[in-house]
């Protein structure tokens, strides 16, 4: 059975009589966007590796998408978690979450725990863990661990080399990186 979800409108959107233009087919990992007022146009269709509705816990997303990525990182592969979306769409909450309930712990703290648990269990293997934290907003890149978080980084083949990196021996140091970056 294909289950299609339509996102709920918030109070402001209801008061402004906004029309819902996004729907999702979770089974097929597809999102559909309708052009307002274009009744005869079919909706734009996008297919992703995973789609998650508002009522699904971050824990589920972590287990299905991020867990395998972090496992690869602990085996020596590079991994990136990229949150993209409109302001107010839930990127920060999904990435950082809250400590309680555990099902709403963000992807970042779950990844920290996962990495350091894997390191503890590894035998005859050395790990070097470094953390960087950047933001891309309005096509501007900022180093959130830098001394001047308002300084723009120029996009170049090696702009990542200019990012501040904190060497992390303990999970708490990585958690500190996320706290410092969000406090700015």
From TrEMBL:
Q: Which SMART domains match?
A: KISc (SM00129)
Tell me which domain of life the UniProt entry assigns to the organism this sequence originates from.
Answer: Eukaryota
Q: Its Gene Ontology biological processes? A: microtubule-based movement
The record ties this protein, via Gene3D superfamilies, to: Kinesin motor domain
Q: What is its main location?
A: cytoplasm
Where is the protein situated, by its record's location annotation? Cytoplasm, Cytoskeleton
Q: Which GO terms describe its cellular component?
A: microtubule
The name this protein carries in UniProt is Kinesin motor domain-containing protein
PROSITE patterns per record: KINESIN_MOTOR_2
Q: Does the keyword ATP-binding apply?
A: yes
Q: Which family does it belong to?
A: Belongs to the TRAFAC class myosin-kinesin ATPase superfamily. Kinesin family.
Query: From which residue to which does any coiled coil extend?
Result: none
Which one of the record's GO molecular function terms can you name? microtubule motor activity
What are the UniProt keywords, alphabetically? ATP-binding, Coiled coil, Cytoplasm, Cytoskeleton, Microtubule, Motor protein, Nucleotide-binding
UniProt-annotated binding residues for ATP = 85-92
Q: Does the keyword ATP-binding apply?
A: yes
Residue intervals of the Kinesin motor domain: 1-184
């Amino acid at each position: 059975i294909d289950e299609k979800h339509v996102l709920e409108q918030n109070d402001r959107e209801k008061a402004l009589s906004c029309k819902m233009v996004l729907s999702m087919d979770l089974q097929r990992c597809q999102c559909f966007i309708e052009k307002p007022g274009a009744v005869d146009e079919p909706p734009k269709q996008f297919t992703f590796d995973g789609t998650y509705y508002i009522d699904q816990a971050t824990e589920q997303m972590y287990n299905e998408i991020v867990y395998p990525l972090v496992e690869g990182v602990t085996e020596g592969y590079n991994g990136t978690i990229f949150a993209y979306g409109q302001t107010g769409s839930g990127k920060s909450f999904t990435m950082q979450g809250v400590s309680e309930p555990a099902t709403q712990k963000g992807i970042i703290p779950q990844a920290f725990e996962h990495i350091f648990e894997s390191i503890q269990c590894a035998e005859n293997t050395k790990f070097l863990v470094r953390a960087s934290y950047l933001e891309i907003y309005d096509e501007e890149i900022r180093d959130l661990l830098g001394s001047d978080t308002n300084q723009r980084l120029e996009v170049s083949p090696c702009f990542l080399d200019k990012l501040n990196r904190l060497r992390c021996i303990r999970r708490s140091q990585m958690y500190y990186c996320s706290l410092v970056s969000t406090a700015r």
